[in-house]
Specification:
Number of helices: 14
Keywords: Glycosyltransferase, Transferase
CATH class of the largest domain: Alpha Beta
Number of strands: 13
Helix content: 25-40%
CATH topology of the largest domain: Rossmann fold
Pfam family, one: Glyco_transf_9
CATH architecture of the largest domain: 3-Layer(aba) Sandwich
Shape: globular
Protein name: Glycosyltransferase family 9 protein
Radius of gyration: 21 Å
Number of domains: 2
InterPro entries: Glyco_trans_9 (IPR002201), LPS_LOS_Heptosyltrfase (IPR051199)
Strand content: 15-25%
Structural class: alpha/beta
Largest sheet: 7 strands, mixed
């Protein structure tokens, strides 16, 4: 095993979902090196939730892709990381992450590479002590295990973990009381970062009513602070027979995790909130379009270490998680939608409300009513 480092930097200069699925590595490293200080380098807006993780000493932010500045100056982080860490790990194969690891790590550096060209592998071998080929068909959460293997650290389980504190709980309590949510509830997050991941809002509304009526659960809809999302939330909530309580982007990811942990059921799309729900152990149905489920399905913390979607498409269950995709032969293409669909994916538009209700029915024994306080 790698000699015990005094300081570790984990680099994930990607999107929120990538950062969320890197949290298992924090637990692995903390167990292996309990006295080590662990810092994170992330893009601004993707890793603020880590500031409440008691295992993380500091979160450093990259803004606008610059490394020129540092010491808290906007846009740069060079002064914050330069030769300050015994162990530097980049979780992406990007040049930005590789350069950051080179600048930060003084003793050991771990990184990934993509492609078989000899010169790509050669220059990266000059940067890293442990260079790992980036697997295409492996779940993103399993990248944490590959890093552990490179360091000689044994891994028994991978757990995606999001923390919240008393202030977050109080904020959720306040919302539920003000919204009149006094009994068991379910959460719908009908939005994603990209339009091609959307489902029709009229079907969201119909699904919400049917779940509320069938199971006696209060609907809670959530969105980001985006004006477009908030407007859609308000518009379609007004079309429901069972009026949902609305979280209009007021919650941080920590507060969202707290809310989800109290819910009886979650329904959502291929988005970061779905990964939070999976981490919270909430029974969930996730609607996916062209996304490659092998890499990006919600991770079951209580599932086997080698969990992987057994099928390339269709309805797949993993414990409290149901992943719902159509059986179209083009799925998963991994593309950002079809060019002729106006930004929306036909494979998402083809999902019917009855199909989602059938998936929910598979989980009935899992979502026993939970208390709101």
């Amino acid at each position: 095993m790698t000699a015990s480092p005094a300081s570790i930097l984990i680099i994930n200069i990607r999107l929120i979902g990538d950062v969320i699925l890197t949290t298992p590595l924090v637990g692995i490293l903390k167990n292996a090196f309990p006295d080590a200080a662990i810092d994170f380098l992330v893009n601004r807006g993707t890793g603020e939730f880590l500031e409440k993780d008691p295992r993380v000493r500091r979160v450093i932010y990259s803004e606008k892709g610059s490394v020129a500045a540092g010491g808290g100056r906007e846009g740069g982080y060079l002064g914050d990381i330069f030769r300050r860490y015994d162990l530097a790990i980049t979780m992406n194969a990007s040049d930005r992450g590789s350069v950051a690891a080179l600048l930060a790590g003084t003793k050991t550096r771990v990184g990934f590479f993509v492609g078989e060209r000899w010169y790509t592998r050669l220059w990266k071998r000059l940067l890293f002590d442990h260079l790992i080929p980036m697997p295409y068909s492996t779940h993103v959460a399993l990248l944490n295990k590959l890093v552990a293997n490179a360091l000689g650290v044994e891994v028994g389980q991978l757990r995606v973990t999001i923390y919240w504190d008393g202030e977050d709980e109080a904020r959720v309590d306040q919302f539920l009381a003000h919204a009149g949510v006094t009994g068991p509830f379910f959460v719908i997050h009908p939005f994603a970062r990209w339009r091609y991941k959307y489902w029709q809002m009229e079907r969201i509304a119909a699904l919400s009513d049917r779940v509320a009526e069938r199971y006696g659960l209060c609907p809670v809809w959530t969105s980001s602070p985006s004006k477009e999302e908030v407007a859609l939330l308000e518009l379609w909530a007004g079309q429901c027979r069972y009026r949902p309580a609305l979280v209009k982007g007021e919650f941080s990811l920590n507060q969202m995790s707290c809310l989800l942990s109290r819910s009886s059921l979650y329904l959502g799309l291929d988005t970061a909130i779905t990964h939070l729900a999976a981490a919270a152990g909430v029974p969930l149905v996730a609607l996916y379009g062209p996304t490659i489920g092998e890499r990006w399905s919600p991770w079951n913390n209580d599932g086997p270490l080698a969990q992987q979607c057994p099928l390339p498409r269709g309805v797949q269950r993993n414990g409290h998680i149901v992943l719902l995709q159509k059986e179209y032969p083009c799925i998963p293409c991994g593309k950002a939608g079809c060019d002729d669909a106006g930004g929306e994916s036909p494979c998402m538009l083809g999902i019917e409300v009855d199909e989602v209700m059938d998936a929910v029915a598979c989980l009935e024994e899992n979502f026993a009513p939970r208390m709101t306080t």
